[in-house]
Design brief:
single chain; alpha+beta; Rossmann fold; Immunoglobulin-like; Serine Threonine Protein Phosphatase 5, Tetratricopeptide repeat; eight-stranded mixed β-sheet; five-stranded mixed β-sheet; 21 strands; globular; signal
């Protein structure tokens, strides 16, 4: 081999090494959602899930994950926490969900059970439980690698055996979970084999969780190696009665805990000379001590800009207390509670607040120089951008706030969002929120441009919004086929508004070939994410039975009650309850229920007067849009094309499941249902 060829190989090897080093230096975004459900309300509590979750959460935090921890979640709480987690997982390298609690299978599909589930009626599984496939589908749309770990393979404790699953009643499985088909780059781990029961064990932790949290802390172990070690431990601990199981389609290695950070460099002393007493340089402690730094939420890791006055390699900092939520990082790596860093790295420190957490956090350091050390503590306070506060969208899985409805967007929102776009031009969410603010102000052309910019930058709700423009004819020609194309794109990315809109179109064959089964499935998925309009649509489908879906008034009622729990004005109105007319509605809590709704009386009426509040006359001017429930659906388009636009039911001749103009979750008349729900006493 010639010298020139050898040099060529050496050059290529160097390039490969540089590329590999650069890849390794990248700080991966890794997020974990850890749930422990112990205190069930309708069935006996479980002993270990709460402690299991704490132990596993600590393990993931030591591994440098952004960890969302939740215990004893109700269905509503799960929806909220899961949305925050999905916003954090958007674009993540690895997204993990760990669940310990009750779960069982129906018709080969697995369900995780919130603590407030009663599961007494056939429809309860749809409105009270969490379908594992929905969780996995959302993770697939957000992250490169998905890992789901389930310590939920216990006996089914609920007496009822048959539940609604799409369009038929299915008998629930007696024990364990069903095998799950994983997509590319996914690992799903079960505490035991499919159809079998896992044990709580005799200690404070279940055998599976105990083995997992211990084995996963071994540095540089790929997760499939970790799971093999967990399997050996659990089989031994249970005398072969429990065999952990996993389905894996991983093509990339997943190392949960990397090698411990190298300790900060210390001054090398000459041979035979003892440690030198170094005083801490002036200003080192003051650069950190008693600082309160405001950190914006949802814009990525923000530099702390500490202006540390020391670059001496003899000075190092060790983390004495890690923030309770969020992640500390350097540009090349995430920091864990055991990390150390050199003095010249301090100015590169960054912090990313956890979405949904507003409480300030403290970070403690031990600053060392030779054999001297001093503590220093600073506070990091998450702050919401005024644009998010003024124009954030409800159920936006890339958003950071609960969101506002179109008519709740104030006059100063556009200015706030223009400032946010200028400060953070690459944050797609701000472009979308600017579009919402401009639309609320009647500036349709400018709004369309901002929303298109957001869609081009990857904001999923903005893609849905483009579909709503085409569907409603706001500032453009009505084009249902084009609208459904946008809805399909956003639905594939997990947006519940798009799922509901596409589900209606497919169920009714509006601008697309009818597919009742897929349409019904999408509506159910949107409802499971908390979309009230989808719940109302399903209620109307199940009340009468449509397109081959059997009628079941009790099932319809279950979805309306679920809408009321989420403060859906239209759900209240369908049942003849007083519709709220201001955004500040009282939460409908169980303690104010004096009777139980047991039936629905169908009354055929020539006009749809089903509301207890006085009906407003038809508007001929572009006046204020009435409040539309907590999911922000569109009003009907006005002739001027300047109507506000934001939501699931587009307010066009979408038809929806109502069979007419679908105005979504409004406090006004829905002309679609010929036989409305009569007034029902008891709420």
């Amino acid at each position: 081999m010639g010298l020139a060829m050898l040099r060529c190989y050496a050059f290529l090897a160097a390039l490969i090494l540089v590329g590999f080093t650069a890849f390794e230096a990248h700080a991966d975004r890794r997020v974990a959602f850890v749930i422990g459900n112990s205190e069930y309300r309708e069935i006996p509590p479980l002993k270990n899930p709460d402690r299991d979750a704490r132990d596993v959460a600590n393990m993931f935090r030591l591994a440098g994950f952004d960890v969302f921890v939740a215990k004893d979640l109700t269905k509503l709480q799960f929806e909220e926490r899961f949305r925050n987690y999905l916003a954090a997982a958007d674009g993540a390298d690895v997204a993990v969900v760990y669940y310990s609690g009750h779960g069982f299978q129906i018709g080969g599909e697995n369900f995780l059970i919130p603590v407030d589930a009663s599961l007494k009626a056939p429809a309860d599984i749809e409105v009270q439980a969490i379908k594992l496939d929905d969780v996995l589908e959302q993770l697939r749309s957000k992250s490169k690698i998905q890992v789901i770990i389930l310590d939920a393979c216990r006996n089914n404790p609920f007496p009822r055996k048959d539940y609604w699953l799409r369009d038929q009643l299915i008998v629930a499985g007696d024990a364990g979970l069903a095998q799950v088909k994983s997509s590319l780059n996914t690992l799903i781990a079960f505490a035991t084999e499919p159809g079998a029961v896992a044990y709580d064990g005799t200690g404070n932790l279940s055998p599976f969780s105990s083995a997992f949290s211990r084995r996963a802390l071994a540095p540089n172990q790929e997760i499939r190696t970790v799971m093999a070690a967990v399997r050996r431990d659990v089989v031994k601990a249970t005398n072969g009665k429990q065999v952990p199981w996993e389905n894996s389609s991983l093509i990339d290695d997943v190392v949960l805990v990397r090698s411990a950070d190298q300790p900060a460099l210390e001054k090398v002393q000459p041979s035979g000379v003892g440690p030198v007493a170094l005083n801490l340089p002036t200003g080192a402690v003051e650069a950190i001590e008693n600082r309160d730094i405001s950190i914006p939420v949802g814009v990525g890791p923000a530099p702390l800009k500490l202006d540390f006055p020391v670059k001496d390699p003899a000075v190092s900092l060790k983390l004495a207390s890690y923030p309770a939520t969020g992640t500390l990082s350097l540009p090349d790596r995430a920091l864990s509670p055991q990390s150390s860093l050199t003095a010249d790295e301090v100015d590169n420190l960054r912090y990313e607040p956890q979405i949904g957490s507003a409480a300030p956090v403290e970070v403690g350091f031990e600053i060392r120089a030779g054999n001297s050390s001093k503590p220093a503590t600073m506070k990091l306070s998450p702050s919401l951008d005024p644009c998010d506060q003024a124009a954030g969208a409800p159920l936006d899985l890339q958003g950071v706030v609960p969101g506002r409805l179109p008519n709740e967007i104030g006059g100063g929102a556009a200015e706030a969002c223009e400032a946010a776009v200028k400060a953070y031009p690459n944050v797609a969410r701000f472009h979308y929120e600017l579009g919402r603010a401009l639309l609320a102000a009647g500036k349709v052309d400018e709004a369309r441009k901002a929303i298109q910019d957001a869609a081009d930058k990857g904001h999923v709700r903005a893609v849905f919004e483009l579909g709503s423009f085409a569907s409603s004819g706001i500032g453009t020609a009505v084009d249902p086929t084009k609208a459904n194309g946008f809805y399909s794109q956003a639905s594939d990315k997990g947006d519940p508004y798009a799922m509901a809109a596409l589900g209606r179109a497919l169920f009714n064959g509006l601008g697309v070939q009818s597919d009742t089964g897929k349409g019904l499935d999408l509506l159910l998925k949107a409802a499971a994410m908390g979309h009230v309009n989808a719940m109302n649509d399903l209620a109307l489908i199940f009340k009468e039975g449509r397109n081959g879906v059997p009628a079941d008034p009790a099932r319809a009622l279950a979805f309306l009650k679920a809408g009321i729990e989420r403060q859906g004005v239209y759900s209240m109105s369908i049942l003849g309850l007083p519709a709220r007319t201001t955004p500040t509605v009282a939460v409908c809590k169980p303690k104010v229920i004096t009777k139980t709704i047991t039936k629905i009386k169908v009354v055929r009426t020539p006009t749809p007067k089903v509301f207890k509040t006085p009906a407003k006359p038809a508007q001929t001017d572009p006046g204020p849009v009435p409040w539309r429930g907590n999911n922000g659906d569109h009003p009907a388009p006005r002739s001027g094309g300047s109507s506000g636009s934001d939501g699931g039911s587009t307010g066009s001749t979408d038809g929806g499941s109502t069979g007419s103009t679908d105005t979504g979750s409004t406090g006004s008349t829905d002309s679609g249902s010929s036989g409305g729900f009569d007034t029902v006493s008891g709420l």
